[in-house]
Amino acid sequence: MEARRTKNIAALVWFVGLILAWECGAWVLQNVMHDSMHMQKLPYFHQVAGTFLVNFNSLLASAMVTLSRAFIGFILGAVVGVAVAIVMSLAKFVGKMLFPYLIISQMIPVLALAPIVYSIVKSQDAARIMLSAFITFFPVAVNMYSGLKSVDKDKIELVYSYTATKIDTYCKLMIPAALPHLFSGLKLSAPAAITAAILVEMLGTKEGIGIKILNSLYYGANGALIFWASVIMAALLGIFGYAVIAFIEKLVVHWEKGDREEGVS
Amino acid sequence: MNKIAKFMGLLVALSLVIGLVAGCGNSNSDSADNGKKLTSVRLQLKWLPSAQFMGFYYAKEKGYYAEEGIDVDFIPGGPDIVATNQVSVGAAEFGIANLYSILPFEEQGHPITEVGQIFQKSSFMLVSKKDKGINSPKDLAGKKVGAWLGTAEYPIYALLDKYGLNKDKDLMLVKQDNSMDAFLNGSIDVASAHTYNEYLVLLESGLAASDLNVIDLEQEGSGMLEDCLIANTEWLANNPEVAAKFMRATMRGWAEACKDPEGATEIVWKYLDHSSNNKAHQLAFAKEIAKLVMPQGITTDKICYLDEKSIKATEDLALKYKIIKKLPEKVYDKQPWEQAAKSLQ
Amino acid sequence: MQRSGNLVNGIIAVMFGILFIFCWQVGGFHVLLQLKPYQLPLPTDIAGALYSNFDVVMENTKFTMCEALVGIFLGSILGFMFAMLTAIFPKWGSGGLTLVTAFNAVPMIAMAPIMNNWFGMGMSSKIAVVTMFSMAPMAINTYRGLTVLKPFTLDLLNSYAADKKTIFLKLRLPNSVPNVLTALKINTTIGLMAAICSEFFTSYHGIGFELSTVLKLSQMSLGWAYIVAAALCGILMYGVVSLVEYYALKWHTSQQ
User: Fold this and answer.
1) A8/B137 Cα distance (integer angstroms)
2) Which of A143, B177, C44, C57 is the most exposed place for a label (fewest CB within 10 A)?
3) What angle do CA A12, A257, C252 make, to 5 degrees?
4) Better pLDDT: A90 or B201
């Protein structure tokens, strides 16, 4: 209980400190350096917060649209990522074989991929979901794969000697043992899924956080505050995604707690 | 095993919740179709929804498309999408793109054809702050010049050529993004601008027209034709009637929108995200667009006119600057426009 | 044994690649997915474009690699430091870790213009973007490595009455080595991607600068030549980190 309270206080201190640093930075930029671009570089936090609150409904509506897109992409990407990792660890040579190509796949920008994806699936929505899943699956696959690889050899042999089937080995040992790694991957992928959804909005859409950002850049000075408010909204979405995964992790992976120690705190 | 089941259960529950949220968000996108069977047509816009496309929005809101039995779906564009590609693969029947940038696609055999020239003249200009002393295109030498590379650099090449400047040696071309920030913070000396948005953005940023030097590429004779209406060739061959009807409604929409920029802005406003847009800016935007679509005394039946001479001029520049190696067999198809224009006279 | 196994795997991977490119060349993918050569160019066309533009491609690749490497280096160090501080002061650090994650959630299309405004249109703004995006993978992974310890190791050290400093240096830090290397691997890919993406905005050289330009003009072969260059860089960086990992982990197991 006590530890929890100090943790909350610490979080509060960080939050307040960040805002103070932001305000000071904006003040210095405006009044000491007399930067003509201060609105674009770093506007006052209170101004951004004001804009955020005034436009909250609109921002939230856009955020929901982006979030739902991100979620579908995330689920698909995570499922594909886990599947790829399991296949790669099941057959070692597949793993070694596929890995370089996974990296290559990440180097193809959406701009080059879009005409190909669109000519395969003509539907706007399907193409978008495919693209955001494509961006999301990589960190999940990498972490899950390294998790599966890191399971102790003697443990595998032990379980194998008891049950003898590969499926059992995976269900009872490998996957649970890889879960912590999987969650590290998911924690990185959750914010990545949000940015992927926003990137896919660059293909053009009616609503979304990305559209707000794009509009405010395109229409210049009027947009600086709503730009920053949208950026904050996007970051909040990312933190939300991270927090949801962290919460699920706590529910699912509590056996790892045993290894974690209280020594330091 | 139990842990995994729990994990999966949580995932399912979460997906249901978010699915519900998403479902609510999308429920209003289905348009009501009152008994009459409308032909669905998709129009891929060149960029984000704005007054740049006001004629199309106007025609839709005033029911011109519905009168022709057409239901148009506007697909917004963005920086990562090339409208020409979308029309080529059949993700949209119609699209809007710069004339000179569709030429390489046509050359390679993409099934696209121009069916109407929306902007009758170029809106392209190069702006610089007075203190940079760029009074004539010759003064561009040694400067950092922002260009929208990949979409709008060729008019600049044509201009430089006219004044005997080498684009690789005599100045530095910089890729300009969708904002004017690089110009405002002094990273670049000269910026590309359209009369209808970027120039207005500069004025709204506190610069006066007298603070700026402007090189108007249309006046310099290096302007190339911009927004044109393109169609998927295969679709066009099968649906010539629908295309003609679409053209007619589009021309009426543009004619009315250009005569009434205020009304058009109100209509466009319905399609925009309000918190990141500004109505006054859209109105100024609309007024500039009107000048490009209906320059002095053009009548409704001359809107989107495919002027062979000015198209030829753009083609020649495209050949000269190696956008294309040889002229595509068929750049444009006058059929739908002629059919539409005849009934509008 | 291990060596020859790696060699066999390497050969298999290359064979797979050759088969893949062969299918691509003879039009297998184009038939299967109903693509046209102007949507996905053939490998020979890409190779041709790469050959005839080799100098330009190399020149631009050099810039992008520089941005990615410096950015990854800075970002990884910052991320590592954040993780270390969080492990030493867990109560105060977790807020910082959240903050780093929040940076990671700022979309590229916003981060790149902000950094361009701050650092100009040259390489420094791209390096800043890469730094921002390679911080979180390192911080999260390292933090895991520093805190999730093998069972009983901590009890053992505690029973020796080891002080915090010793525990940190002798147990936590070595324990985090595999995680740091995993993070580095992720960062090579993320960093290169971030460098390329940030060049899509105001810029005057680099893979992303050229790539976005030629793709919009439908010069697909040249565009894919740049993608090939980027992919090779990605594989190269990944390979180097893997090699380091191979030797480091050998040392790592021998230390325990």
Assistant:
1) 62
2) C44
3) 105
4) B201
Distance from CA of B280 to the nearest CA of C (A): 25
CA dihedral B267, B270, B275, B280 (to 10 degrees): 10
Residues of chain C with Cβ-Cβ distance to A180 below 8 Å are 144, 148
Chain A residue numbers touching C231 (CB-CB < 8 A): 103-104, 107
| CATH architecture type of domain C41-255 | Orthogonal Bundle (1.10)
Distances (CA, A) of C128 to A100, C75, C103, C132, C141: 27, 9, 12, 6, 21
Half-sphere exposure of A217 (CA within 13 A, CB side): 29
Q: Which amino acid is at B148?
A: W
- With beta carbons less than 8 A apart as the criterion, state whether B278 and A219 touch: yes
C113 touches chain B (CB under 8 A): yes
Which is higher by pLDDT, C6 or B207?
Answer: B207
Percent of chain B with pLDDT over 70: 90
ipTM over 0.90: no
Residue spans per domain, chain B: 39-120+225-344, 124-216
Q: Which of residues 62-101 of C touch B (CB under 8 A)?
A: none
In angstroms, the CA C236 to CA C245 distance is: 14
Are the beta carbons of A252 and B78 separated by less than 8 Å? Answer: no
Q: Does C122 touch chain A (CB under 8 A)?
A: no
The domain spans of chain C are 1-39, 41-255
Phi, psi of C179 (to 5 degrees): -65, -40
For B230, phi then psi, to 5°, come to -120, 155
What's the pLDDT at C35? Answer: 81
Neighbours of B225 (CB within 10 A): 24
CATH 3.40.50.620 fits B39-120+225-344, yes or no: no
Token reading at C2? 């291990």
